[in-house]
Amino acid sequence: MSKLVYLYELDSVRKSKKQIEAGQAALFEEIAVNGNSVVLSFNQLTDSQAFLVALEDERSFQVIIKLFEIGVIKISPYGDTRTASKYVQDALKKVLNIKEDKEDKEEKDKKDNFVFSALPIRFNNEEDKELGRKIFEAIKYGDIQGLKEKISLASSEEDKKKIYFLIRFVKLVLLLSTGDYARNLKKDDDGYKFIDFMDTLINFEEKIISFLPEVKEALCIIKKIKKNIKDNKKNINSRSVWYDKLSQTENTKDMYNASLIIDLCYNYAVEESISNISKHYTELDSNSFWCDFKERFKQYLEDKVGRGHEFTPLDKVQLPSYKDINKDKLPPWTSVNWMIGEFEKRERSVQNNSNSKKDEDNIKKWQRQQIVWFIKYFIGLFGYIVLFVGINFFINKACEHFEILMVTYLSKWWGMGISTGISIFVFGIVSDIINIIFKMPDLIECIGNIGRAIRGLWQIKHFKRRSAYNLKNKKRKL
What we know:
478 residues, 19 helices, disordered C terminus
């Protein structure tokens, strides 16, 4: 049975070239290789470059859209915000200083450091602000025509690509706000908060230092920041607030380690807020939690050397440069097209199970299921091709008799021409009727789909694993 998983690899702060590639690979691995469903937070939807890089390519975007439509990828509601549309609109109001009602006016004097770090705009010039207003209007009114009009006004191909990217982003947000299966169920109790995880680390400082001695000074920094936030009555559960305070400390190795602790606790808190989620530990402060924290922290440390991770203050976040990403290193999303129908049946018939068998057992079961799906898919298409060939055979036989009759009364060439024309006409009508009844593509597309399915299965089976985190996988490809 599939699991519902949250990917730390898609965190918005993981934005180096290799981290973006690894995040996409982890998303693909969980879905296509492990057979799981993935849930995103609102922050990942708007700020994760590792996720939104898929919007750069129209073919990948179409597959991502399909996976959202059938519920293989979901979005998790949080707090009072139930839809992606509401989340993005609220964020844009703050960034663009849009005041629509009394509640917005009350927020006027409050500074907000929200950054759409994965979108190719920064709202620091009039052109970007205008695009931001077009995005706001498109999402609010469900009309992307205003953005489309900007395409013809673009001064360069790069600007056109940027607008196409934003249009895809708006389409995705609108789908997530109206789709029945794209939204995960809201959790009745949000469980542990960000500060609960931070306090657990502080309260068990000696225990952590015993197996991670390199975090000793980092925990001291954490305690000082916590006191500062409380003294200044800031939001203790906001990572942005912690980042702001952390950026004011000296840039040292200990400061960097403190940023990793903050990132880990933030992701633990987001994961905890998601209903039916599959976690790598049982309870906070359990042995499984400490084991998970130790391995994740070590892998975060490896990311500095292997994947170029850096701590970046919010006011220094750069525009994403998706064009620098090697497209050949991104996963082959089109390879899952042949499984979409079976994915949909699975999502409708079963519930994601957070407490099912071991990961290894689930993966083996999924690999067997993939083969079964492929055989069913192949037999269906092949049977359809045989049906077409059979119909064509009988039509040709019938037309042969008609041709003899035509030749008797007309010339040979007229008889052959009329017979061939009737054969093509009848075959076309019968084919259309069959397409409508069985909802299948035409003969040529069936043959092409078989080839694409074989290629897709081969790509999935040969995909390099261990991009997604697994507690038992001590080594990853960096």
